[in-house]
Amino acid sequence: MNYLVAALYRFVHLKDYAAMRQPLYDFCSERGITGTLLLAEEGINGTIAGKPEAIREVLARLRSDERLALLEHKESWAAEQPFYRMKVKLKREIVTMGVPNIHAATMAGTYVDPQHWNALIEDPDTVVVDVRNDYEVAIGTFANAINPKTASFTEFPEWVRQQSQEGGVLDGKRKVAMFCTGGIRCEKSTAYLRSQGFDEVFHLQGGILKYLETVPAEQSLWQGQCFVFDERVSVGHGLEQGDFSFCRACRYPLSEQDRASPVYEDGVSCPHCHGKHTEAQMARFRERQKQVELARQRKQRHIGVRLTP
């Protein structure tokens, strides 16, 4: 494995976040790092990849800012560069919920480390909620976790409102445990629940990635694989790369069974998006896939691959 992948975030007040963009982009680009970093007044979030020494330099630079001294990050490895370019973007939120005045830096729930997570979610008094999007949950989650079936994180507050009503899964529940890929959505979702009057709110420290990295498979309550937002698509225990791939037309993660479907066409359609694109779109997808194959034959990467229509 040649490339170190670092998923990082920190909720902290960054009043000068716009001024941080260009120097951070230059620092990463000069070291051959690729990936995406998001900057907002509420903090920093992103995933980057590069040679190990280069990634260590970026992490050290970020932590040299006293506001980011406690920056969270998780590490994994990739045989090839999992990103095509480096981007540093300015955002209103580093993870978009769309609800004002949710201050995860000060309002987040109680951290639970991976070693104590099993005991919490096996407690019958605990409601366990997967706060990721539906397509992520589809390929793996914790045993008995509730899937809110959201298409985006902005739908989560409405789900909480509905499920807090009489008969909902949150109705009368005091103890709620939530988890996500790396921990960032957990922090914001627990902060939101606390703002809605929930007292005992917990989240998995370091997210699913830290759990899969540290908890032995024989002790694990995780089922399936974990979706990641890069070219690896999924990882399993020990953060070993999984066997899912992307549909280049709709970005849905595809299993071996999906790829065996008669409606699957590499780079063009899959069982999840078949029949949803126009003929013009499919013609563009086929031309794009042709260029990808030509680049592959030349043992080059097709940098211009788009992951969405």
UniProtKB/TrEMBL annotation:
<keyword id="KW-0819">tRNA processing</keyword>
<keyword id="KW-0560">Oxidoreductase</keyword>
<protein>
    <recommendedName>
        <fullName>tRNA uridine(34) hydroxylase</fullName>
        <ecNumber>1.14.-.-</ecNumber>
    </recommendedName>
</protein>
<dbReference type="InterPro" id="IPR020936">
    <property type="entry name" value="TrhO"/>
</dbReference>
<dbReference type="InterPro" id="IPR040503">
    <property type="entry name" value="TRHO_N"/>
</dbReference>
<comment type="function">
    <text>Catalyzes oxygen-dependent 5-hydroxyuridine (ho5U) modification at position 34 in tRNAs.</text>
</comment>
<dbReference type="InterPro" id="IPR001763">
    <property type="entry name" value="Rhodanese-like_dom"/>
</dbReference>
<dbReference type="Pfam" id="PF00581">
    <property type="entry name" value="Rhodanese"/>
</dbReference>
<comment type="similarity">
    <text>Belongs to the TrhO family.</text>
</comment>
<dbReference type="Pfam" id="PF17773">
    <property type="entry name" value="UPF0176_N"/>
</dbReference>
<dbReference type="InterPro" id="IPR036873">
    <property type="entry name" value="Rhodanese-like_dom_sf"/>
</dbReference>
<dbReference type="InterPro" id="IPR036280">
    <property type="entry name" value="Multihaem_cyt_sf"/>
</dbReference>
<feature type="domain" description="Rhodanese">
    <location>
        <begin position="122"/>
        <end position="220"/>
    </location>
</feature>
